[in-house]
Every structure is written in structure tokens, then in C-alpha cells.
Amino acid sequence: MRDLSRRIREVSDTYGLPLAPERVVGDLSAGERQRVEIIRCLLGAPQLLIMDEPTSVLTPQEVEILFKTLRQLSSEGTAILYISHKLEEIRALCDTATILRGGKVVADCVPRDTSAKEMAELMVGKDLIVPERKTEDATTVVLQAKDLSVPAQSQFGVSLKELRFTVLQGEVLGIGGVAGNGQDELLAVLSGEISCPPNQLYYKDEDLHGTNITQRRAQGIQGAPEERLGHAAAPDMSLTENAMLTGAVRQGLAKRGMLNWRKARKFAEEVITTFDVRTPGPGNAARSLSGGNLQKFVIGREVLQKPELLIVNQPTWGVDAAAAASIRQALMDLAADGAAVIVISQDLDELMEISDRFAALNEGKLSAPRETEDLDVEQIGLLMGGAHGLPESDAPMADAEDADGSEDGDAESDAPEAETASAEEPGDAEADKPNAEVETSETEQVETDATDEAEAEAEAEAEAEAEAEAEAEAEEPSAGASSAQESAPPKIDIEEDAGEAATEGDTPDTAEPHSEAPAPSDSGEKSEEDAAQPEPEAAPKAKTPPAKPKPSKSIVINSDEDMILPPVTPAIGSGGISISSSPPPKKKPDSEGSDT
Amino acid sequence: MIRLEKRPQVSAFMSYATPVLAVLATFAAGGVLFYLLGKDPVQSIITIFYDPIFGEFSFYYRPQLLIKGAPLILIAIGLAMGFKAGIWNIGAEGQYIVGAICGAAAGLAFYPMEAVWIFPLMIAAGAFGGWLWAMIPAFLKVRFGTNEILVSLMLVYVAEQLLASMSLGLLKNPEGFGFPGSRNLQQYASAHNAEIVAGTGMHWGVVAALIAVIFAYVLLTRHRLGFAIRVTGEAPRAAHFAGVNAARLTFFCLGMSGLLAGLAGMFEVSGPAGQISIDFNVGYGFTAIIVAFLGRLHPIGIVLAGLLMALTYIGGDIAQSQLQLPAAAIQVFQGMLLFFLLAFDFFTNYRFRFGFRRAV
Q1: What would the mean pLDDT of A231-241 be, rounded to a whole number?
Q2: Residue A151 falls within a domain, yes or no?
Q3: Residue A135 within any structural domain of the chain
């Protein structure tokens, strides 16, 4: 154990990922937990690192730290397979990208030379309509929170602390923040699912204390929670019944307690047609719809009821780009028609795009709302809590670095590191190369140019309209973004061109040697090509949904959340790539494997 | 390779076919059971399922179908409402007993006065007794988060002790020569739940059961409360989001099933049973659980299931006397019905897939 924690310290020092081995995971922030996963992977000295949507729980500052680590790793010869629907991240980080749609490769591109819009259109397969904002000056206060404080509802809940904000008629208030900082609670309090204390929450100057969710619906307050199945909609019930779920009050679907199913069905059909929900009909179960279609139904159900205040949480989470665009458009249209809209989201680009004012939730506290136009992503990131868990002294550094990267295009901070790292790597790579047949056939190893990245980064924040969760899912259903929050099965060997699955633990336990050597350096079993490469800053090889991961010995990281998923044992496509795991230190539930 | 796969939608066909398949499977397994007991399986099943309705003495057994079916249906309707909402009242037997005690006590309190209002009063008292007994687990669940399955089940045994105490003490027939048991309500005209049409088995409990069925049907399909019940059972968080008050719903569902069970007990004690006695309860409250599931928690289904279970009771009695089948064999037979039902029920949500799945 002591040995292990020493190695953890070494690795975390080497990569600038502060982490104290003795801390309990439960106390860590999401960003820090992700660091745990990354370091766990690094301990295994990977040659291929697979990451699936790693940034969804990170602040922009933490993303920058992560990217820095990834660049360092790639410069040391680790191939990185980066799966994401955040196109600007891919543009900032990756050398080549493969775009998947519906489980098929639709394009390869060099992300730096391709605009995010182009990539989004490739993903979606049609022209993307970017929502347009119609701004009008609003003055009427619809909702006002005066030091709204609500204690945590459960052991792992977050308590809301002295929230202070107003929402005006016709505006979209964006509330950002890293997952688990009180978003669910905020939605529940505003929609009336949990009650609020007296004299803290006013709707059109009336105290909302003592009103339940049904009464608030009657008053024109509607909500759409994050979790579609099971919260916003009952999975096994038909869409008609789900329309009844929240529509009964305002749509007059119930009279003296008796339900009017014909009317409910008509309402459900209206939602389906207006919002282009793809389903055979309102009689189908909510469960049978795809995520995007169900989300369109859920949002449409609320929007069509003409709420005066609509609160949505993660409206486009796991939704394909086209559906996301139409949902955003609907929200903005609703605001343009005079409703107040609160959008709680972890997608900053989304908030930048649609919200008039922005506030960030961090550990149950809300920053003062500010005009979105005046903010840039750096400031938002700081509002969101900066880089969680970094010592104060480090934080500024992270910011500075971030600023370098994204604003000035001056990447000094990155460059030296890349050099040092790569400097040690050739020797190491030669030194222990247990896997003779390691090969990276990826020839497009583009030199990592920090400045390039910097530019891309800058743009990253700027636009980013589209997302394609679908893509991620399609790509790797098993570890799929949706299901799979797993962390690192310690070691996965990917053997190229070996038709059969699973070469078990063919690597001599690389973990051992690391006790003396910093993990990253001697891990770098570079392919011959790699090693031969003249440039000291060898390239990160990162791709979006990759058609064919080539190198051997990989690690899957997925940091959406912190559960352990079994390593994937599937043959991806017909490429003859097989992934297997050597006996993992962490026990993985077999059951999971069997139902993927 | 065979594996199970969740269906994207609940199979409508399977949800109708399940009870039928369960009955057929029970016939088959029951036949094997009877064969192993040394009886002719076909003859046994004919005796149980055919003779009571179409046999030589069916004129005697047919009214029994209603008499035995009514309490089962009455109780099962109440249970089904709770089960649909995910509130598991397993203690209907206890509520049935307490309802009977309260109903009988209300009547006997006025003995030997004759008045038309006595019987309605007994109905109200019976309903109240059952309701009250069910309020105990409801309150404990809402207030302290106890498990209503355990509490309601254990209250059955409390109720049984109460029943014994009543038949030996407070309600004991003063003219009963020291035998345990109350006065016979059948001999007390104002309190007697007599057949409405002689010889049909049609008593007020049957009427109440029919009303309950219609009430439950309308409630579950057309009323907001029924919708709340269904949503709560399907997705509790979605129900909360829809504005359903879970605590109130718990009180309603447990109260309703207790009330109906109490009514069933009251109609039973004032009619077919006649008196409070130590062995008054014969397990209707537990059998009703099978009835509720066999009827797919649907009011109409419960009517059919209740009649079917009544049939097994009657047929079981005949088989006992004519074929010397042990009483336990009949109970096993009834249990198998629930077993197969639940087993087949699985396939409304899942299906078999043969062959290897595609690698993903």
C-alpha cells in the first residue's frame, strides 16, 4: 500500500495532477475523481488511452488541466483515443478524427482544418440550423429568489445556500455548473417538487411557500427534470399517459377528477407533430423512444402548455445535434413569446448560445447572474468553482495556463513540458518494450503544435453548436457514454489484426517496474514508427470515435462518472481488433459484461 | 445460446395469455402431483374444475361459487389498487378478521332488537374495522418508513389472537353452553346477511363485490386518483413530479384495501359463516393475493380469477370427500397457480433470444 501511494504521488507530480492518495473518494469533487481514474490508468503505463466523454463533469479550467496531461502523455508516445461529442474539444486536442453516425463511419477529417459546424453536419447528416436569438428588453420580474436556502433532501443531496436571483419576462437565465452542485435540487425547488421556505421565493410577487407542484403548474410554472425516464416520464406508460402526467392541470385534461383521455391523446399528438417526435404514435411507451425523441417530447409537452416560467435541467443531455438545436430553438422562442425560461445545464456552449444572463451553481451556491455577452468561458469556469481541489496557489496557474491556451495562442506552458516529456521517452521506449508486436499504423501522427491547439481552444468556447451523443453511443455501445460510467479497467490490450478476441495479460506486468520509474516514461512502448519519428514532440494521436484503434495495450478511461465498468471484450467492427484485459486489480462485475 | 432480453414494449399478447398459460401449466403440474398421490390425474382435475359447475350436484355447488367468490373478489379489488401503486398489503386476512369482529360486534350490541338500520350499521362498522387495521401499517410506513409488507402481515397474527379472544370472551354466546363463538347472526334477522334470492348464493357481499369492481374499474381508468396509483407503481419519481402525494396515496391504497377486506369479513360473518369463532378465517385474505395477480390487477380479470379460485375451493372440497385427496394437495394446487402466473408474467416484459448476440 505504501508503495502504491508513493507511486501515486510520483505520477501525480509528474503530470501536474494534484492528488493525495489517502483521501476518500467520496469527498472528492467530480474533477478530482476523474484525476483518480486518470492516475489509475497512468499507473498501468498505457500505450493506448481511451477516453469517453471525459469532460462532462469538468470545469473549463479542469478541462485545460486534463488536456495538458493528455498532450504530455501523447508526446510521450501514448496513443489517445478520445471519444466526445464536444467538437471544439476535439478540434483543440485531436490530430485526426473519425466521425460516426448511427454506428457507421461517415467521415475522417483533420479536426484542426475542419470547422465545428462542418463536423456537426457530418455527424447529423444534414444542415444544422443554429438557433437564433431574438432579444427584447425585458423588465417584468417573473421569479425572484431572496436568499433561497433549502437543506439537502437526502444524505447525498446538496443543500442550496442563499440563492439570490431574478428572472425577467422574456429572458433566458442560464445556470451553469458542474454536475452535482445542486442542479437537481434547484429544479425541484423551483418547480415545486420540494417545498420552499417562506419569504424566499416569489413568483410575480407572490410567495411560493406552501404551493405544491400542481398549484404551481396552474400558476404557469412548468419544469422539465434532467432524468427523462423515470422522472420526467414514466417509462412503461404510453405517450398519451405521459402527456397527462404534467398536462392535466393546464390543458384541462381532467374535470372534477375524471380524466379526459381523448383530449390527452390529442395533446400528445400535438406535441409529437409540433416537435417532430419520431414515434409510431401516442400509444407507444415512453421507453421505446430514443433519448432525443423522448427529450423533444418532454420539452414539447411543457412548452406547448405555454408556461409563464419554464425551468429545464439539461435540456439537450444525450440528444443528437439536430434535436438539440430544435430544443434550444423552442426554448428561445418560448422566451421570445414572453415567458421566463431558466435553463440549467452543464453544457456551457449551450448556455452561452441561448441564455441572456448567466449564473453558476457551485456547491449549492449561486453566483450573481451576469449578462452572458460580457462573459467568456474563463470567467464562467471560475464562477463554476475553478479547478476543484487545486490548492489556491495552483489555481491561478491553471487559469493562466488556460488563458494562454485559449486566448493568446501562446502556449509556452505547454511546450516545454511536451519537450521534456518526449525527451525522455525514446530511451525508455527502447528500454522496455515487452510487446514486440506493438504497432501503430496510424500514420497521421501530426506534430502537436501547441499554438494550433491554442487557437482551436479559443474557438472551442466560441461556438460549439452541436453534439452527438449518438455518436459516442454508436461507437462503443458497451462502454457507451450513456450507460457507462466506468473507470479504468486497468489494462486492456488491443491487438491489431488479431482476429481472435482477447489476448490475456500478454504484457509483463508493467505495474511493477514503475515503482522506480515514473510511470509515463517507461510505459511508452512506442511503435517503431513512433520511436523513429524525428520530432521530439511526438504527436498525440487522438481521434473522435475511432474506427480502428491500432496500438496495443490500452486503457479505457471513462470519466463521466465514477463507476467501474468491465473492460470491453468486444471485437469492434470487423477490423480484427480485439480488446481484452489482463487480470485487473479491481474486480469488475461480470454481470455488467454479460449484458452489454 | 439462449438468453433473455427485455422487450422494448410490454407485450399485450403475453399479458392476456399469461393467466391462461398459468392455468394450463397448473393443470399439468397438478395432474402430475395427483398422479404421484396415486389418483387419476384427469379424474381429479375434472372433479375439481368440471363437477362443481356441470356435475350431478352442480345445483348445490353453483351458489357456492358466488359465496366463495365474493369475498375473494372484494378483497382482491382492494389489494390490486395497492399493488398497482407498489404498496404491498399482505395483511388482508387480518383486516378481514377485524372487519368481521367489528361488524358482528355492532350487530350483537343491539341484540335482540330488530331494526332496519342495524345491518347498514354493521356494514359501516365492518368497513371501519378493516380500514382501521390497515391504517396501522399505513401510518407506520408514512411516519417511520416501516415496511408495510411486514407490518401488515404480522398484524394478521395479532388479529387472529384478537379473534380468539373475542370468541372466548367479549363476544361469546351467553347461551352457548360454554362453547367458544358468538351468537349465530343467521338467527338474528336484522343482522343476517341473507340471500337476496334464495338458492342463488346471491347475498349482499356479492352486490358489494360487483359495486367494488365497477368502482375500481372507473377509478383506475378514468379517475385522476387511479392514474396517480398507476404512475406511482410505474415510476415513483415521475409520480412525484406529476404532483402525486405519496403519503396520501399510501393512506388511500391501504385504507381502501383494508376497508374492502373488512367489508368482506363482515358479509361473511353475518351470512355464510354466521358467527365469530376461533376458526372463522379460512385464508380468503391470502388467497385474494393470488386472485389479484391472476386477474392481472385488473378489475374484470379479478372477477374471473376470483371465480376460478372459488372453483378450486369448491372442487377441492369435492375432491377431498370423493377422491380422498389431502387438503394440502389442494393448497399446493392453488399455490402453483400463483407460481406459474408469476413465472409466465416474466415474459410480458422479457423474451427469449436464441443464438449469440452480435458483438458490440
Answers
A1: 92
A2: yes
A3: no
pLDDT digits (tens, 9 = 90+) for A12-43: 887 777 777 887 877 776 667 777 887 888 88
Torsion, Cα A215 A221 A222 A226, to 10 degrees, reads -110
B209 pLDDT band (50/70/90 cuts)? Answer: very high
> Could you give the CA distance from residue A503 to residue A583 in angstroms, rounded to a whole number?
11
Average pLDDT on B78-94 reads 95
Residue A230 Cα, gap to closest chain B Cα (Å): 5
Burial code (b: 16+ CB inside 10 Å, e: under 16) for A30-43 equals bbbbbbbbbbbbbb
| Contacts A237 to B, Cβ<8 Å | 230-231, 234-235
**How many structural domains is chain A composed of?**
2
**Tens digit of each residue's pLDDT (9 = 90 or more) over A85-143:** 777 788 888 889 888 876 788 888 888 888 877 887 777 666 656 666 655 566 788 89
Chain A positions touching B225 (Cβ under 8 A) are: 257
For residues A438 and A342, membership in a common domain is answered with: no
Does residue A167 sit in the same domain as residue A105? no
ipTM value greater than 0.95? no
A191 shares a domain with A105: no
For A431, the grid coordinates are 528500454
How many cross-chain Cβ pairs, A to B, lie less than 8 Å apart?
78
Interface test with B, best of A212, A249, A253, A259 (most B CBs within 10 A): A259
Closest-CA distance, B230 to chain A, in angstroms, reads 9
Judgement on whether residues A591 and A558 belong to the same structural domain of the protein: yes
Domains of chain B (ranges; CATH) run 40-324 (1.10.3470)
Torsion angle of C-alpha atoms B150, B155, B158, B163, degrees rounded to 10: -140
Interface test with A, best of B6, B227, B356 (most A CBs within 10 A): B227
- Grid cell, residue B30, equals 397438478
Asked if the structure places residue A510 within a domain, the reply is: yes
Residue B223 DSSP class:
B
A109 and A152 in a single domain? The answer is: no
On chain A, the residues whose CB falls within 8 A of the CB of B227 are 241, 244, 259
Q: Which chain B residue is nearest to residue A216, measuring alpha carbons? A: B243
CB contact under 8 Å between B223 and A233, yes or no, is no
Point out the domain boundary residue: A340, A355, A370: A355
pLDDT of residue A480 exceeding 60, the answer is no
Across the interface, of A193, A254, A284, the residue whose CB is closest to B241 is A193
Of B224, B235, B243, the CB nearest to A235: B235
**pLDDT tens digits for A387-406?**
554 444 333 333 333 333 33
Estimate the share of chain B in helix, then strand, then coil, as percent rounded to the nearest 5. 70, 5, 25
A545 neighbors A475 (Cβ within 8 angstroms): yes
Is residue A434 domain-resident? yes
Place of cell 409537452: A301
pLDDT digits (tens, 9 = 90+) for A291-326: 888 999 999 999 999 999 999 998 988 777 778 888
Q: Look up the CATH number of the domain holding residue A202.
A: 3.40.50.300
Q: How many C-beta atoms lie closer than 10 Å to residue B175's C-beta?
A: 6
Residue B223 forms contact with A (CB below 8 Å): yes
Contact A244 B235 (CB under 8 A): no
Structural domain including A570 reads: 2-129+408-595
Residue A473 shares a structural domain with residue A438: yes
* Cβ–Cβ gap B360/A596 under 8 Å: yes
- Do A154 and A65 reside in the same domain of the chain? no
Residue to mutate among B241, B353, B358, with most A CBs inside 10 A, is B241
Co-location of A124 and A169 in the same domain: no
